[in-house]
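We close this part of the discussion by returning to an individual protein. Part of our work consisted of pairing the sequence of a single chain with a tokenised description of its backbone. The amino acid sequence and the backbone structure tokens for this protein are reproduced below.
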Amino acid sequence: MSNNNKFSALEPYKIDVPQEALDDLKDRLKKTRFFDDLDNEEEYYGISTAYLKPLVEYWADGFDWRAQEKRLNTYDQYKVEIDGTPVHFYYVRGKGPNPVPLAVHSGWPWSSGFSLPLIGPLTDPAAHGGDPADSFDVIIPDLPGFAWSTPVGRGDLNYWKIADIIHKLMTEVLGYEKYAAAGSDYGALVTSALGHKYADSIIGLHYGHDMPPGQFANERFWDLTDGAKIPEDAKPELRAALENLISTYVSHVAVHMLDASTLTHGLNDSPIGMLAWLLRRWKKWSDKRGDFEENFPRDFILTEATAFWVNQAIGSSIRMYRNAVRYPWVPSHNRRPVVEPPAGFTFLLGDAYPPGVNTVEERIAAFDNGPTRSSFNVINVNAHMKGGHFVHYENPEAFTDDVRETFRKLR
């Protein structure tokens, strides 16, 4: 777990968007041609013009990017090139007797900004009511092709290729012999690929979603349901939950898989188009029992959207999906479980998956009896009522507590 002096050679990085890029964005926003979105007050057809228009107008004339930029620059961050790919990452050393180095991977469409609430409690637990023995060195990269880890200069990136890059970041750039990893959504796939190929270097893993490597390997790779229909005898509650799962995720996976570049041409040229696509995910995937506007303030939404816009990251991030098919994951060994390092899990019940689960006990049982359980060396499982799909952001307190609990067993 040692960390040699390579860290001292890193040059600090600050986010500093050129003013001309911000001026161009504002000009495009002010020239928006809004869609006459008839009969969509309840957003039956997707994000409505009525919801989007005030947000776009605020983005064009009111949103203070420089203030958000200052917030993003609060923590130490760096940018390096690995395998011809830029990697931007936050890196904050732990305050405790023996910090565990922990790489935290976000999903799509998340930037490193979604995981910033974890930094304080994980690096300095004593200052947040915890035990200094639970401290971590926290490394939060933007996945290559996402946000500030751009421009990539290569079109073949996917989760297992990113895992190779992250391993080099942790071992060659930062000099750790052993490290830990955590991840949710697409970042969970990166975490699993690390745990499979580099188990000897991994202290332990922690997940917000149970996603083993090999995802999207089925024949109907674009179909989240793999062709399954809702059973005719399904009870109304289960039918509603299955229909909600389909309406939440199916179009996302199908379009990203089948029309990545076709979609990107529009989103890369139109900030309102890009915002609508991102916003639909944030709004649809987050905890429906909470208040979206309160949990996802407009300044946060527009900060994330601006990060994707100014870096032209929307296309390189979307392509990760089809590249999991074009460049399929191949196991490095046949040992079991396929992801060998000890692993903990944090599940939030506001997510649409798995359908028909309503209590903490049911969520844990669904995992224990589900198809992914045997892929992991499970040592800790927790579920929480608060939060939806964006685990690190929607319930950072629960994720932090669960990460601490997992690694108390491994220190």
Observations:
- Residues 399 and 406 are 10 Å apart (CA to CA).
- Residues 236-258 form the longest helix (23 residues).
